[in-house]
Amino acid sequence: MENTDEINESEFRVKSIKHEGVISKINFSSYTISLKGNINCEGCKAKAACGVSESNDKEIEIFESNQVFSLNEPVTVSLKKELGLKAVFWAYIFPFILMMITLVIASLFFTEWFAGILSLLVLGPYYLMLFVFNNSFKKAFKLSILKYN
């Protein structure tokens, strides 16, 4: 008979993106974590689009953790792979598609240079919309924080 804890833990490893980090700041309702370089980034398919793999000085803020952590404690930050791919879609792929569609449609009605500028300008309202709905995205892309073993 197989141990179900081992199965669930191995499924969690496969279905999540993990980064090691250190608690750098503790606020009343959140933890700020400084992420270390991650060897898992080498095998990740989204490595080219992900900003975490490029630098060692990334910081993220995690709200509402059920566990208690101390300052400078090593932790593991985890995100489900599906959510990571969804984040890459909203941050990189959808804006590219939006820009290309705007370029194609605008080039039917305007000159090339104006269509190009218009396709770039359409990104401003898009990223403004992402900023306005920042809290919704924070709720949707929930990160887990685990004590480092």
From TrEMBL:
Where would you find the membrane-spanning parts of this chain? Answer: 87-107, 113-133
Q: InterPro entries, alphabetically?
A: SigmaE_reg_RseC_MucC
The entry's keywords: Membrane, Transmembrane, Transmembrane helix
Q: Which Pfam families match?
A: RseC_MucC (PF04246)
* Keyword RNA-binding annotated: no
For whether the record's keyword set contains Heme, the answer is no
**Sections of the chain in a coiled coil:** none
Name of the featured protein: Positive regulator of sigma(E), RseC/MucC
